[in-house]
Amino acid sequence: MFGSKKKPTTQIDQEQLALIKNAQKRIKQKKRLYYHLVIFIIGSAILVLLNVVLGFGNNVTLFGTQWFVWAVLAWLFLFVFHVFDVYITNKFMGKDWEAKQLERLVGQQELRIEKLKQKFLEQETKIAKEQAKAELENTVKPEIIDRSSLSLIVAAAENNVIGKDNQLIWHLSDDLKRFKKLTSGHHIIMGRKTFESFPKPLPNRTHVVITRQKNYKAPKGVIVVHNMKEAVSVATLSDANPYVIGGGEIYKQAFPFATKIELTRVHHEFEGDTYFPEIDTKDWKETANEFHPKDNKHEYEFSFITYERV
Ligand SMILES: NC(=O)c1ccc[n+]([C@@H]2O[C@H](COP(=O)([O-])OP(=O)(O)OC[C@H]3O[C@@H](n4cnc5c(N)ncnc54)[C@H](OP(=O)(O)O)[C@@H]3O)[C@@H](O)[C@H]2O)c1
Questions:
Q1: For residue 233, how many other CB atoms are within 10 A of its CB?
Q2: 89-105, pLDDT tens digit by residue?
Q3: Which of 192, 232, 233, 255 to probe ligand 1 with, by most ligand atoms within 8 A of CB?
Q4: Of 166, 250, 276, 304, best ligand 1 pocket probe by most atoms within 8 Å of the beta carbon
Q5: What are the tens digits of pLDDT across the range 114-158?
Q6: Does 11 contact ligand 1 (Cβ within 6 A)?
Q7: Is the peptide bond before 247 cis (omega within 30 degrees of 0)?
Q8: To 10 degrees, what angle do helices 67-84 and 14-48 make?
Q9: Is residue 186 part of a domain?
Q10: 250 Cβ below 6 A of ligand 1
Q11: Ligand 1 contact via 178 beta carbon (within 6 Å)
């Protein structure tokens, strides 16, 4: 009901169309050549008539030859050129010839583009390899760190949130006391952002701050390093148990190499922007757990949990 019959359309093959057009063009060219021949014969006869019969310009000569001879010769030259144009140039250097030339040029360009692509790929690969090498040099390899020497110390909510807007979210005085007790006298490794969240360096601890900024200015006594490997090397030089104290980026990078986690689990969920990695109990064994209830000084319940790597 909604269908309509299509009108049959005449499909002319594009190649045939081109052949027809070319044949029409050739006919026109040959016709023009024929007219040229006729005009040339009549014109030459008129010139001869003018000079020989009517004596027109009888005294005009060039190299001792009458002018009409030169005029006829010049015209003949033009006619020969016309013949050449029709039978040689247009026949052998026509559309086909142009298409072949174009095809050859396109082929050459494609080859050049392919070579450029190849060169570009080689350069890309080289750059990627160099970047990978540089990253590898900046990454801490598990086997080069003495695992017995690296502890993470952190306070994390039930949903693993550890901070918001570069600040801690809760204030738990007993947690701060424990942090002070455990870290005092040790090297504490931290990210530049955590360091800047302190009003001033913490007393009785050696700060090792990791930053990518080559000219980072820190107060006297603070050690500035540019990758985790350097931080651990510096800290373990004179300390058997340095602590990684955060924040999120640094915990994540140090996590695979740590042997101990001193976790304060705050029994509440918070909104935040920084997280501690999930502790997989396949890799970590709980070796101590001390619950702390809510009280006047502590708004939330929490537990001090120690994990050691299995
Ligand atoms: N609850 C907790 O126990 C606890 C503990 C500590 C911190 N926090 C919280 O965590 C948040 C901060 O953590 P965050 O993840 O935003 O920052 P972060 O880990 O403290 O510091 C990140 C910075 O460290 C430097 N860095 C990181 N990886 C590096 C590498 N491989 N090489 C060289 N430099 C590197 C970079 O410094 P540059 O930008 O200078 O290059 C980067 O911006 C805050 O909210 C803080 O309060 C919570």
A1: 15
A2: 877 776 777 778 888 88
A3: 192
A4: 250
A5: 999 888 888 887 887 777 666 655 555 554 455 457 999 999 999
A6: no
A7: yes
A8: 170
A9: yes
A10: yes
A11: no
User: Cα of 297 to ligand 1 centre, how many Å?
Assistant: 28
> Ligand 1 center to residue 195 CA distance, Å?
8
> What pLDDT digit, counting tens, does each position of 226-269 carry?
999 899 989 988 899 999 999 999 999 999 889 999 999 999 99
Cα angle 39, 23, 18; round to 5: 145
- Among candidate residues 277, 278, 282, 279, the one with its CA nearest the CA of residue 310: 282
Distances (CA, A) of 86 to 17, 23, 79: 21, 13, 11
Per-residue pLDDT reduced to its tens digit, 134-143: 665 555 555 4
State pLDDT tens for residues 168-183. 999 999 999 999 999 9
- Residue 228 Cβ inside 6 Å of ligand 1? The answer reads yes
- Are 241 and 158 within one domain? yes
CA of 252 to the centre of ligand 1 (A): 10
- Do 196 and 264 share a domain, yes or no? yes
Q: Is residue 6 part of a domain?
A: no
Range of the domain at 166: 145-309
